[in-house]
Design brief:
The chain has nine helices and five strands; from the N terminus they run E-H-E-E-E-H-H-E-H-H-H-H-H-H. The protein is α+β, with helices and mostly antiparallel strands. Helix 2 runs antiparallel to helix 9 and helix 6 packs across helix 7. It starts with a strand and ends in a 6-residue tail after the last helix. 51% of the residues lie in helices and 13% in strands. A five-stranded mixed beta sheet has the order 3-4-2-1-5.
Length: 224
Amino acid sequence: MQVLLSGIVGSTAYGLAHAGSDIDRLGLFAAPTETFHGLHRPAESHVSTAPDRTLHEAAKWCRLALSSNPTASELVWLPADLYEVRTPLGEELIGIRRSFLSARAVRNSYLGYATQQFRKLSARDTTDQRTRARAAKHARHLIRLVLQGVTLHETGSVVVPLADPERVRALGERYADRPELARLLLADAEERFNRPGVLPDAPDEAPAESWLRRVRAAHLVPTA
């Protein structure tokens, strides 16, 4: 297994980390090409703790990115100083990042995940200190997903660092106490998604297919 691209994501990347925050890492790897030809295919993901790291096999990452999965997609939009592994094939992937984007997938993914966070937020018992802290975290994720999704819809770019993390943190605390207020944010996001954006109707799979074939060729060990 060779890691092609890896970086620091999550609260550190968003600007929401605090003294006790974990450092989350995300990356993608190439498995030896011959391992795809046997009875058992290689694992598509490797997840570890201490440190917290998720690595996706190259093809799986491409499928996630083509569906505009927010967590996977941000890997190719990180600020330069947050990358820890950046190989030539990883650089190529960053170079074709816009080809993965499409209007419907962005709307469904970002708005869908934000709505999930709203449901979790609404279900929390905020009279308990621990569950209230979780509610505030759900609220921050909701706000961040809405901001990223709408920006992506309107500009065609994933902006990972939040422009005003302290405002997001304060708004998250407010939503934790009054979850119904988050409905207004979701409604506004839905209205903006209904307006014409800059993204194509469908992603362009050709660059991803070509890149993945180069990955497979680069990791094929010739047999004697």
